[in-house]
Amino acid sequence: MLHIEDLHAEIGGKEILHGITLHIEPGETHVLMGPNGSGKSTLLMCIMGIDAYTITKGSITFNGVDVTHLPIHERARLGMGIMFQRPPSIPGLKLGKMLNVISPNKKPEDVSEAVSRMNMEEFMGRDINLGFSGGEIKRSEILQMMIQDPHFIMLDEPESGVDLENIHLMGESIARLLQKNQRFVNRKNSGLVITHTGYILDYLDVDKGHVMINGEFKCHGNPREILKLIKEKGYHECLKCAKIP
Ligand SMILES: Nc1ncnc2c1ncn2[C@@H]1O[C@H](COP(=O)(O)OP(=O)(O)OP(=O)(O)O)[C@@H](O)[C@H]1O
Asked: Is ATP-binding found in the keyword set (predicted)?
């Protein structure tokens, strides 16, 4: 589904990603871990095609289409979706209107069902993210993704700032987006999830983990084993491990 080859990317004239190669097949969910500032969000931004980032080398292929230099709206149309770590407020644009812009042909009952599932009824008439709490922003982001219904789902720290009750709601909703209720062979959707805590892994049947340090992958493997190693011994252990296949 997603094939990234030797990706180099920079922002503000500084190279952040130094040759990332990553393959995610249909139905798979991968987890991205790494210390602060290592380039995890940058990778997601580059996959989604956010303007500020310049890809200087390498390629991104999505479902057979070379998207390396496509604009963000074309990638969204092809089925990519992202939940940002810190999405901006959009004064003047109501959340309810945004849902309509994302998917004008969605059945009203399906929209209502998603809004109700995320407990966002009273936010429909509010400007996007303006005055929303951290957890409300995350719920709003997931709701927008439910309406977009992308095939490739990128989540940047979905559990950060979310209380324990809402982590359950977020986890179950993300699992639905990733079609975790279906057998692997029947799943069409794939995902790439950034997490520091690993709480979200309790809800997702994830397939592979990757550790990024200073813009390079230093370790690939079982996400739970990697997380346990990081919790016990820190990221420097990943440098020693360096299990590059
Ligand atoms: N405009 C910019 N100019 C220069 N450096 C930048 C710019 N934007 C981001 N960076 C740097 O890029 C690096 C990677 O940032 P990124 O947000 O991808 O890290 P991250 O791994 O997602 O971190 P975190 O876990 O803290 O969210 C950081 O050192 C950051 O300061």
From this structure: yes
